[in-house]
Design the sequence.
């Protein structure tokens, strides 16, 4: 048996993806905290290990695709920043790394990681926190964020989504992923009408609620889980054969409104590899 694993499949965008895959006749292995095939807490090492073991058993060691949609929101709570980073970052990268051999076994698998536009529109996210997450040092990152006070969960959320996107982009182009036929990409939504967003908004202070309402969304409103699921279906399809290490932002235009001049930009000369300099010289000589 092969099939598709979807984390966070009990609700929200993960549920919408699982529904569309099943409607298309694709076997789905759902992973979440309840009401799914594999019940596991991706915020703990034991939960991630148990999830990987169960998915590999269910799939027979072969997966056509993986959708890593599980995540938690930046609401107040004891040790919440650490929990956010454990689930959103390690719950994605460690589980996906454990499933990589099963994805490679099919020779043409697809993997979609859920990022967020929070990674690029949240101000003041310390780079050293993102670096700590990339190194798997969640406790170190959490200790740093204790100084951030009430906004620590928001920074932890943005940092976790930034780190997971950077990890995916770095991994996607390697022989172990691209070379094994796996197309790994990131979908970065803005606010989407899900229970996660509802929970987050319920905990907002009046000032924070006003700030949320003022967030520029040029097309208006919030996203629909079904629309995001359609993007995932495309990224899992044969049409994504040439899509590798991309971050697809689907946020109603928020990031474009805030950062229109940030991309595209050329690679700084000090970071240009030798082969690209030679190509540039060749192109000028023609």
Sequence:
């Amino acid at each position: 048996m092969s099939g598709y694993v979807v984390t966070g499949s009990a609700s929200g965008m993960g549920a919408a993806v699982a529904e569309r895959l099943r409607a298309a006749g694709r076997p789905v292995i759902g992973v979440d905290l309840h009401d799914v095939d594999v019940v596991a807490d991706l915020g703990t090492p034991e939960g991630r290990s148990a999830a990987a073991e169960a998915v590999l058993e269910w799939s027979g060691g072969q997966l056509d695709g993986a959708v890593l949609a599980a995540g938690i929101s930046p609401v107040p709570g004891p040790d919440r920043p650490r929990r956010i980073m454990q689930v959103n970052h390690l719950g994605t990268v460690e589980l996906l790394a454990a499933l990589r051999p099963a994805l490679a076994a099919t020779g043409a698998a697809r993997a979609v990681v859920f990022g967020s536009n929070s990674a690029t529109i949240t101000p003041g996210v310390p780079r050293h926190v993102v670096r700590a997450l990339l190194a798997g040092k969640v406790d170190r990152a959490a200790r740093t964020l204790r100084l951030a006070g009430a906004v620590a969960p928001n920074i932890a959320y943005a940092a976790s989504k930034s780190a997971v996107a950077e990890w995916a982009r770095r991994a996607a182009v390697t022989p172990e992923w691209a070379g094994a036929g796996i197309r790994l990409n990131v979908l970065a939504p803005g606010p989407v009408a899900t229970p996660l967003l509802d929970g987050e908004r319920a905990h907002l202070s009046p000032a924070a609620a006003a700030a949320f309402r003022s967030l520029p969304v040029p097309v208006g409103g919030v996203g629909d889980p079904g629309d995001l699921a359609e993007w995932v279906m495309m990224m899992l399809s044969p049409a994504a054969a040439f899509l590798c290490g991309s971050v697809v932002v689907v946020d109603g235009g928020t990031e474009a409104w805030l950062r229109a001049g940030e991309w595209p930009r050329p690679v700084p000369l000090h970071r240009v590899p030798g082969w690209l300099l030679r190509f540039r010289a060749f192109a000028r000589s023609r």
About this structure: The beta strands are 4-7, 28-32, 38-39, 65-68, 110-114, 183-189, 247-250.
